[in-house]
Structure formats: C-alpha cells, structure tokens
C-alpha cells in the first residue's frame, strides 16, 4: 500500500481516507448486547517488537491498521526522538484516534486505538502484528461513553 508520510515533526497533509461521510447527522454511538456507548478504546502493549525506530514504517503500519478498522484518517503527526530513536505519534481519525509511543531499546510499544461508530478496532491487531512482529501482545478494552 502507498501511504503519504509527513516530514518528521510535521502534520500530514494527506487527504482523509475514503470514508463513510454522509449528509445525515449521526451520533455514532454503538449498541452491543443491550449496552449503548460512544466507542471501543483498545490499550495495546507490544513486547519484543521490531521496527520501532522508523517513523515512516510506523506511519505506514498505523495507517493500514486504521483503514482496516473502517476509520477515516484526517491527519497524522509523528516525532522521532534522538538519540535513542523512539517515536511518538498520532493519527487523528474522524472516529477518534490511533496513537503510539515506542521504546526501541526495550523492544516495547504502547498503542491505543479509540474508534466509534461501526469501526472495529480489533481488525487492527493482525496489521500491528505483521508490522511490528511482537513476541507478546497485551490487550485491554474500555468502552467509552457508557449510557445506562
């Protein structure tokens, strides 16, 4: 897949991914098993991971992951820290965000994926596994905006 990568420390000017924008006003809350909530927020830890010091690779993997969830990418911003090479970055989505913070010296990455509406954040997991080849993945789910 061909992705636009913003210069380091800059905001991406890439156009939003092809998306489900409509004229109809929606609140994008979801309902599962009788519970209504704003969206699903995954907290993901990758241990024994690779390619954590390459902002272009990280940007590409996160964009593919976001698109796989069904989300609409609005902007991206990635910062490469020196001298240790860690990367912090975020993709702003119409449906919320994807963020990452990496510690290449520890082969560790902390990510979160928060999406609302019909997006499925779990579809990003195989993309993250292919892109970073972690030995171990820790995952926690939090439903945001729970309504009684």
From TrEMBL:
<keyword id="KW-0620">Polyamine biosynthesis</keyword>
<feature type="active site" description="Schiff-base intermediate with substrate; via pyruvic acid">
    <location>
        <position position="96"/>
    </location>
</feature>
<comment type="subunit">
    <text>Heterotetramer of two alpha and two beta chains arranged as a dimer of alpha/beta heterodimers.</text>
</comment>
<keyword id="KW-0670">Pyruvate</keyword>
<dbReference type="InterPro" id="IPR017716">
    <property type="entry name" value="S-AdoMet_deCOase_pro-enz"/>
</dbReference>
<keyword id="KW-0865">Zymogen</keyword>
<feature type="active site" description="Proton acceptor; for processing activity">
    <location>
        <position position="101"/>
    </location>
</feature>
<keyword id="KW-0068">Autocatalytic cleavage</keyword>
<feature type="modified residue" description="Pyruvic acid (Ser); by autocatalysis">
    <location>
        <position position="96"/>
    </location>
</feature>
<dbReference type="GO" id="GO:0005829">
    <property type="term" value="C:cytosol"/>
</dbReference>
<keyword id="KW-0210">Decarboxylase</keyword>
<comment type="function">
    <text>Catalyzes the decarboxylation of S-adenosylmethionine to S-adenosylmethioninamine (dcAdoMet), the propylamine donor required for the synthesis of the polyamines spermine and spermidine from the diamine putrescine.</text>
</comment>
<dbReference type="GO" id="GO:0004014">
    <property type="term" value="F:adenosylmethionine decarboxylase activity"/>
</dbReference>
<feature type="active site" description="Proton donor; for catalytic activity">
    <location>
        <position position="116"/>
    </location>
</feature>
<feature type="site" description="Cleavage (non-hydrolytic); by autolysis">
    <location>
        <begin position="95"/>
        <end position="96"/>
    </location>
</feature>
<dbReference type="InterPro" id="IPR003826">
    <property type="entry name" value="AdoMetDC_fam_prok"/>
</dbReference>
<dbReference type="GO" id="GO:0008295">
    <property type="term" value="P:spermidine biosynthetic process"/>
</dbReference>
<keyword id="KW-0704">Schiff base</keyword>
<keyword id="KW-0745">Spermidine biosynthesis</keyword>
<dbReference type="Pfam" id="PF02675">
    <property type="entry name" value="AdoMet_dc"/>
</dbReference>
<dbReference type="InterPro" id="IPR016067">
    <property type="entry name" value="S-AdoMet_deCO2ase_core"/>
</dbReference>
<protein>
    <recommendedName>
        <fullName>S-adenosylmethionine decarboxylase proenzyme</fullName>
        <ecNumber>4.1.1.50</ecNumber>
    </recommendedName>
</protein>
<keyword id="KW-0456">Lyase</keyword>
<comment type="pathway">
    <text>Amine and polyamine biosynthesis; S-adenosylmethioninamine biosynthesis; S-adenosylmethioninamine from S-adenosyl-L-methionine: step 1/1.</text>
</comment>
<comment type="similarity">
    <text>Belongs to the prokaryotic AdoMetDC family. Type 1 subfamily.</text>
</comment>
<keyword id="KW-0949">S-adenosyl-L-methionine</keyword>
<dbReference type="InterPro" id="IPR042286">
    <property type="entry name" value="AdoMetDC_C"/>
</dbReference>
<dbReference type="InterPro" id="IPR042284">
    <property type="entry name" value="AdoMetDC_N"/>
</dbReference>
């Amino acid at each position: 897949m061909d992705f636009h990568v913003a210069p380091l420390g800059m905001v991406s000017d890439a156009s939003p991914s092809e998306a489900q924008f409509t004229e109809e006003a929606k609140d994008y809350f979801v309902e599962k098993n009788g519970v209504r909530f704003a969206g699903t927020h995954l907290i993901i830890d990758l241990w024994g991971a690779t390619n954590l010091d390459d902002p272009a690779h990280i940007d590409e993997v996160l964009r593919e992951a976001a698109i796989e969830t069904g989300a609409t990418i609005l902007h991206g911003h990635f910062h490469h820290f020196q001298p240790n090479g860690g990367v912090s970055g975020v993709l702003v989505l119409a449906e919320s965000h994807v963020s990452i913070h990496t510690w290449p010296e520890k082969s560790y990455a902390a990510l979160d994926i928060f999406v609302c509406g019909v997006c499925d954040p779990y579809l990003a997991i195989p993309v993250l596994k292919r892109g970073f080849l972690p030995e171990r993945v820790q995952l926690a789910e939090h439903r945001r905006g729970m309504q009684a």
